[in-house]
Amino acid sequence: METIKENLNYVRNNIKESANKSNRDSEEITLLAVTKTVDVDAVLEAIDNGVTDVGENKPQELARKYEVIGDKVNWHLIGSLQTNKVKYIIDKVHMIHSLDRQALCEEIQKRAEKIDRTIDCLVQVNISKEESKHGLEEKDVIEFIKEVSTNYKNIRIKGLMTMAPFSEDENEVRTVFKGLKNLSLEIDKLNIHNVFMDYLSMGMSNDYQVAIEEGSNMVRVGTSIFGKRNYN
Ligand SMILES: *Cc1c(COP(=O)(O)O)cnc(C)c1O
């Protein structure tokens, strides 16, 4: 079995390759190691090998690992977030990738204000319109972002996030990533107060190279670093 270190080298080389292919600097692309179900020792090993950002999809799991590892690494919440779980992560999280509804904004605003923090968030968009996918429909995103800008001063939108469908068809995947990129350009032009299109969080183990070619600067990679997940 390959080690985490070898896997990281492999993924980083692929990131460089895709960046070069699209005339971009790989330094501007953040590799977010997705550590859900991965034990603390393996997370620490990844950090020892240069990982600066990790992603978890369950708030309590993030909180539990944070208690051991702390601020040695930036913690990202990448999964859909229930309002009653916001309290577990509000003082720990570096960025939330799954902002997708008013009720969640309300809760984040309330908790963030209480501890005097501004929370960086990405708006999750369901570009592919798969029913199984969370996130706003593309047509609702701009209005949502304007509302956040006006009403939730402790939430700072830093970009967009999407998940592509699991598909063998590379063109289908590519079209989704292109769609998110175009939407971010459109939003950027509107110059909305406290809204920044700095990050495009797109690309997972099976499609991060395509995502980078289409403009991703934050890839969320789990399996290719830590191996197949064991959910037991
Ligand atoms: C699990 C997960 C990933 C990583 O998936 P891999 O296929 O293991 O790379 C990325 N993004 C989200 C939102 C996830 O839940």
Walk me through what this model shows.
This protein is of the alpha/beta class and 232 residues long. It has a single domain (4-226), classed as TIM Barrel, CATH 3.20.20. It has helices at residues 4-21, 40-48, 59-69, 86-89, 102-114, 141-151, 170-189, 208-213, 223-226; strands spanning 30-34, 53-56, 74-77, 95-99, 119-124, 155-161, 195-201, 218-221. An 8-stranded parallel β-sheet has the order 7-6-5-4-3-2-1-8. α5 (102-114) links the parallel β4 and β5. The longest helix has 20 residues, at 170-189. The mean pLDDT is 96. It binds pyridoxal-5'-phosphate (PLP). Pyridoxal-5'-phosphate binds at residues 34, 36, 57, 78-79, 163, 204-206, 220-224.
SS field, number of helical segments = 9
Rg, nearest Å = 17 Å
Count all strands and give the number. 8
**Ligand species:** pyridoxal-5'-phosphate
Please, how many domains? 1
The residue ranges in which pLDDT falls below 50 over 5 or more consecutive positions are none
Mean of pLDDT = 96
The CATH superfamily name is Alanine racemase
CATH hierarchy class name: Alpha Beta
- Roughly how many Å apart are the termini? 20 Å
Work out the strand percent: 15-25%
DSSP helix fraction: 40-55%
Write out the strand line-up for the largest beta sheet, numbering strands in chain order.
7-6-5-4-3-2-1-8
Predict the CATH topology. Answer: TIM Barrel
Question: What composes the largest sheet?
Answer: 8 strands, parallel
Inertia-based shape = globular
Structural class: alpha/beta
